[in-house]
Write a structure and sequence with these properties.
This protein is of the alpha/beta class and 773 residues long. The protein has 33 helices and 24 strands. It has 5 domains: 188 residues, Rossmann fold (3-Layer(aba) Sandwich), CATH 3.40.50; 79 residues, Arc Repressor Mutant, subunit A (Orthogonal Bundle); 162 residues, Rossmann fold; 157 residues, PCRA, domain 4 (Orthogonal Bundle); 46 residues. A hairpin with a 3-residue loop joins strand 20 and strand 21. The longest helix has 25 residues. The chain binds a DNA duplex (15 and 10 nucleotides) through helix 5, helix 11, helix 21, helix 28 and helix 29.
DNA sequence: TAGATCTGTGTTTTT
DNA sequence: CACAGATCTA
């Protein structure tokens, strides 16, 4: 039974074997913390702890699922099934459904996603007649979110003059009022936003001692993964639940705290030892994941941070190749480099696509990578970004489904009351909203009671409203007798959603119909799957609950693909080959996070996370110019590259001239063979070449570059304007005539018939051409 | 009222 | 560029 203990090293075994009490495990990157958590749970169960009494909180659903799987392998699946394991949000949503009535919520409350919340806030700002340029809904939303995460309720807000003053100072004196209206509206709609799931859990545990006791007794052993990323609200929940038995084990790494922007408080982990009696501290410092080069390079970065717990991450793994750094002209070329590098590595080392990950700071960067991978026919998958359930057509269907479960759901109703178009316009909706606010009812209820409410709408509109409500009601009735799939299928057809898309006929419309079909299939699968679980019914409400908190990461595809994701999403994952792209100032570190030391340190931790995902080889790339908000802008290499000790890096480009070189100077190489400028061509497996090139090497490299004189040289603008039929002159091929223009922007090519060279295809960006006519 | 078209505005990261 | 909101037209 306990043979698995032999699979742990001494440092890992110690926290596994401490059955009771409070403990903190500071686990360096790749040091096997998941292993410690799973084995600890298995050990507790082997010592007779009932799985019903174990609560394990993870950061993602995926992590929970994986841990459960691993535990099943050790203790058997029937036992593992009873563990409470999941994210804070999903576990406590479940608990809140059970206890909802105590807080005045229906048990079928809706969970608002960010978009729902933001739209509602936007509507409230408009209703209140406030200036939308001062009260920007996104800002207001994040302000409210941070209040909630700090447990500042509306009441607490108005009792705290400092907060009011702070908001008044930032020209938003009515923020408290918006907050109040927003909370009221959510309550009336029977809806909780993401932050409410934590805030209301706190409220529940605070206001109802008997509920607190019930769950304290239930969760005798609590484990929290990624503790460094907990916010105040989560911290208090954990504190309250563990207070009685104090059997709490938190695992984390302060060096990997990357969620301060959503309220994560690094002090939760730094101060843990003060929060409980006799806290045992364990450190996992041996990294099993990465090569020495990667581990040491990562250490050399994180050293630059001032706020940190002391720990030394080390590895017994081989040195491995150095980190390859490359500079590219544009984001398009960056993509092409990454794609061909992946292609070469795959061929040379017989690797599958799953060995590679491309990590970036912002979702928008995925585009260039996608394009390049697609051209190379390398299968890939984008994680995160817009999740399937957030797509317009999917959210439309889901909104109908939400509405038939909870007709008070304002966000859902507003979304679909006139989609597909049924003649209920903005004016009518405004009237409904006013009526709803004055009578303290939901919009749906207002329509239900049109006989008693003078809405000042004509009879046609009145009919349309009644028809809509009746349609939703008929769906509700159907839902009582039919399974979730049948209901969803009926909704998709009867509402005219699918018809509307069919009518549209564009490829996008077709894709949307396919997505809806996929959703319906998903619901069918869900219904089938739930039937096998004892405590589930496969109801529509269950499906919606599942979907509200599902993320893109959770979906398994089973095919072999290169993974593309933000660095945030990559936390906890590992890949043999990792490409970190967009290593540029203003992008990484983000321009929004360079103002304070702590923000910059978080960016640095993010870089640390990125690098430590790599097992064998890491690549860093940056560009000289990249498309941002639709325009090509100059970029500058990230300071983080310089922060890595040079001996861990292998530059593919000379390092003398990269700062602030505008495109036009560096790119017009004429017919100089660009590859000569590259010092080495990287091939994984071959011994890594020297570090930064020496001064002497640099001088040599510079000589390769011809002195460009700009006189007589066509400016890039002229060349880009080139049209078919133009006469041009090339420095070597002589005069010629433009036959054809291909491609756009940076990739624009011209087919030219030269007197001395015949027909050539030239990339205009590089071609040294003079426009003659 | 619907739908097309224009304008403006902002963009980090996520449960 | 991408999306939200405003404005215009039928």
């Amino acid at each position: 039974m306990e043979s698995y203990l032999a699979e742990l090293n001494d440092a890992q075994r110690a926290p596994v074997l401490q059955k009771d009490g409070a403990m903190i495990v500071i686990a360096g990157a790749g040091s096997g913390k998941t292993r410690v958590l799973t084995y600890r749970i298995a050990y507790l169960m082997s010592k007779g702890v009932d799985p019903f009494n174990i609560l394990s909180l993870t950061f993602t659903n995926k992590a929970a699922k994986e841990m459960k799987k691993r535990i099943s392998q050790i203790v058997g699946s029937s036992e593992a099934k009873n563990l409470w394991m999941g994210t804070f949000h999903s576990i406590f949503a479940k608990m809140l459904r059970f206890e909802a009535d105590k807080l005045g919520y229906p048990s079928n409350f809706t969970i608002y996603d960010t978009q729902d919340s933001q739209r509602l806030i936007s509507a409230i700002i408009k209703e209140m007649g406030l200036d939308k340029d001062i009260y920007k809904y996104k800002q207001v939303y994040s302000r409210i979110s941070s209040y909630k995460n700090s447990l500042i309720t509306v009441k607490a807000y108005f009792q705290n003059p400092e907060l009011k003053e702070a908001d008044a100072m930032s020209k938003k004196p009515r923020l408290g009022d918006i907050y109040k209206n927003y909370v009221d509206r959510c309550f009336k709609a029977g809806a909780m936003d993401f932050d409410d799931l934590l805030l209301k859990t706190n409220e529940l545990l605070n206001r109802f001692p008997e509920v607190l006791q019930k769950y304290q007794n239930r969760f005798r052993y609590i484990l929290v993964d990624e503790y460094q990323d907990t916010n105040h609200s989560q911290y208090l929940i954990v504190k309250a639940l563990s207070d009685k038995f104090q059997n709490i084990c938190v695992v984390g790494d302060d060096a990997q705290s990357i969620y301060a922007f959503r309220g994560a408080n690094i002090n939760n982990i730094l101060n843990f030892q003060k929060d409980y009696d006799n806290v045992q501290l364990y450190r996992l410092e041996q990294n099993y994941r990465s090569t020495k080069n990667i581990v040491n390079a990562a250490n050399s970065i994180i050293e630059k941070n001032k706020t940190k717990l002391e720990k030394v991450v080390w590895t017994a793994n081989e040195d491995g190749p150095k980190i390859i750094v490359n500079r590219l002209l544009t984001d398009g070329e960056e993509g092409r480099f990454v794609a061909s590098s992946i292609f070469e590595n795959k061929m040379q080392n017989q690797l599958d696509n799953g060995s590679f990950a491309i990590l970036y700071r912002t979702n928008a960067q995925s585009r260039a990578m996608e394009d390049a991978l697609r051209k190379r026919e390398i299968p890939y998958r984008i994680y995160g970004g817009l999740s399937f359930y957030q797509r317009k057509e999917i959210k439309d269907v889901l909104s109908y489904l939400r509405l038939l479960i909870n007709p008070n759901d304002e966000a859902a109703l507003k979304r679909v009351i006139n989609y597909p178009a049924r003649g209920i316009g903005q004016t009518t909706i405004d009237k409904l909203t006013i009526a709803a606010n004055t009578y303290g009812k939901s919009i749906f209820e207002v329509i239900e009671n049109l006989d008693h409410i003078d809405l000042k709408v004509n009879s046609g509109t009145r009919n349309k409203l009644t028809n809509f409500v009746n349609m939703i009601k008929s769906f509700s009735i159907l839902n009582e007798n039919a399974d979730a799939f049948t209901v969803a299928d009926t909704v998709a057809k009867k509402t005219g959603l699918v018809q509307d898309l069919k009518k549209d006929g564009t490829p996008e419309g077709v894709a949307k119909i396919e997505n809806i079909e996929e959703l319906l299939n998903g619901i069918r699968d869900f219904v089938e799957g739930q039937k096998e679980l004892a405590d589930a019914t496969g109801s529509l409400a269950e499906f919606l609950e599942d979907v509200a908190l599902a993320t893109d990461m959770d979906k398994e595809t089973g095919d072999d693909h290169v993974a593309l994701m933000t660095i945030h999403l990559a936390k906890g994952l590992e890949f043999p080959y990792v490409y970190i792209v967009g290593m540029e100032e203003d992008l990484f570190p983000s321009g929004m996070s360079m103002n304070t030391r702590s923000e910059l340190e978080e960016e640095r931790r993010l870089f640390y996370v990125a690098l430590t995902r790599a097992e064998k080889q890491a690549y860093l790339t940056y560009t000289q110019s990249r498309y941002r908000w639709g325009k090509l802008v100059d970029a500058e290499p990230s300071r983080f590259i310089d922060e890595i000790e040079g001996k861990f890096l292998d530059y593919m480009i000379p390092q003398d001239d990269y700062k602030y070189k505008p495109l036009i100077d560096t790119d017009i190489f004429g017919d100089v063979d660009k590859s000569k400028l590259r010092q080495t061509k990287p091939t994984a497996g071959s011994p890594p070449p020297a570090h930064k090139p020496s001064e002497e090497q640099l001088r040599k490299l510079r000589k390769l570059r011809p002195a460009l004189d700009h006189t007589g040289q066509a400016s890039i603008k002229d060349v880009v304007k080139l049209e078919e039929g133009n006469e041009v002159e090339h420095i070597r091929f002589g005069k010629g005539k433009v036959l054809k223009i291909d491609g756009i922007g940076q990739d624009k090519k011209a087919e030219i018939n030269f007197e001395n060279g015949g027909i050539k295809k030239l990339l205009l960006r590089f071609a040294k051409l003079k426009l003659l006519s």
